[in-house]
Amino acid sequence: ADTIALPTTDELRTLARTSLQRCGVDPAVLDTAGVTNTVTARTPVTGDALFDYPAAGAADVEAAIDAAHDAFLQWRTVPGPVRGFLIKRLGELLTEHKEDVANLIGIEVGKIRSEALGEVQEMIDICDFAVGLSRQLDGRTMPSERPGHRLMETWHPLGVVGVVSAFNFPAAVWSWNLALAIVCGDAVIWKPAQLTTLTAAACSALFDRAAKESGAPANLNVLVSASAADTQALIDSPKVPLISATGSERMGEQIAPRVAARFGRAILELGGNNAAVVTPSADLELATRGIVFAAAGTAGQRCTSMRRIIVHQDIADELIDRISQVYRRLPIGDPFADGTLVGPLIDGKSHANMTEALEQAVAQGGQILAGGRRRPSSDNSYYVEPAIVRMPTQSEIVKDETFAPILYVLTYDTFEEAIALHNDVPQGLSSSIFTTDQREAERFIAADGSDCGIVNVNIGTSGAEIGGAFGGEKTTGGGRESGSDAWRAYMRRATNTVNYSRELPLAQGVNFA
Ligand code: UN1
């Protein structure tokens, strides 16, 4: 194959600088001469370093906790709808700077243009949602068993929320948490992936501007671009009642017990091993399109990326043939170029993981039907052909999440078998079924169907809208973010019993006179 044509690192560097500046990041911070703690910003597009950026250390994280806590103490008494103004302004600024933020996402993650813009759109959408929510932070009123009494619940701001985000959605995942936390009266400390420190800086600058313009206190969002080692205080601090963390299962295993040990709350968004069941009645043309976007899109680097197909044996060959044909002509390359659908992997480690997984799959009886090779580009960039691998059984490697575009194909005979295979993995994030048989579709979304947090019919596993609650079960971690009533995790509930009578009847008929 021809060598992939890439922009120069200098071009990307210039674009990163101007995008940062337009979002309100002081260009002086880019002069890191004499700064001891820095992180090197890189781009997977060429694989090169862009420039050094100031990082936060352990002491900064400690200071951030105090600063955010002070901001929370002021913010919690500001009425919800007034808190909404700040998020409304943030949504406007994100709309105005959509291109700039998308540039940085494209540079740091290698997302294709429409997906980078889509990520910023997802941020604008959650801001809209949160603004509406700021007038709907409602509690219930229940009938009291006692005369002259009222029983109700009120929802109060919780405190400082620690947001730990991953490289692959470097801006949107923060915004899902931040927009809800802010309208709920909380403050946020944001620890982004160090791979996406520039995107985080730009988003935080836009937030700071929105806060200033809407008269909100400073430090409602404190960015700490620190290493995991330097972020320990955030995980352990009793001043941080909620940690919302997105990343690997390994990261979740490290964080969750420590948050639990101090009786903190955690929202965990960890691995996915998302599958599509494709039944004999499926519209195969539509299924192919849905599968290819979910499996090859974002170079397989979404937590919702499709990693498995469970297809009925009678249609397996036809479906595989259709997908392989599309895979063979997928435009792989410079994510900034028009027409590209598959950009680079994030780094060499990710490529090594993909290669290793493919080797293991073959060792476990798999047959690579398409893709899997690295396309020639620059030395440090990793552009790969998304792979399809037919597996004889759901062996060990299929049960692992490899964060790269590998799609394992398994076949089934009975529908029961399909559901059993579907659920027989440790993870439980997203799932889908392609069928035109209503019985199968309903069964898949029923209690004894898919065991995932997201269950789709006739669309792929990725690309969820913000209006629904986002998250999954089992090793995915159980957290829910974004829409529906996910906001409740960002508040504390108080149950109130109010006696407006002149008597003092006791509950349960207790007599204490
Ligand atoms: C993630 O990959 O961490 O549903 C989030 C989706 C996107 C979010 C993915 N809305 O694919």
Automatic annotation (TrEMBL):
Active site as annotated: 269
GO molecular function: aldehyde dehydrogenase (NAD+) activity
Source domain of life: Bacteria
Pfam families linked to this entry: Aldedh
PANTHER family per the UniProt record, alphabetical: ALPHA-AMINOADIPIC SEMIALDEHYDE DEHYDROGENASE
Subunit relationships: Homotetramer.
Entry protein name: aldehyde dehydrogenase (NAD(+))
Organism whose genome encodes this protein: Rhodococcus wratislaviensis (Tsukamurella wratislaviensis)
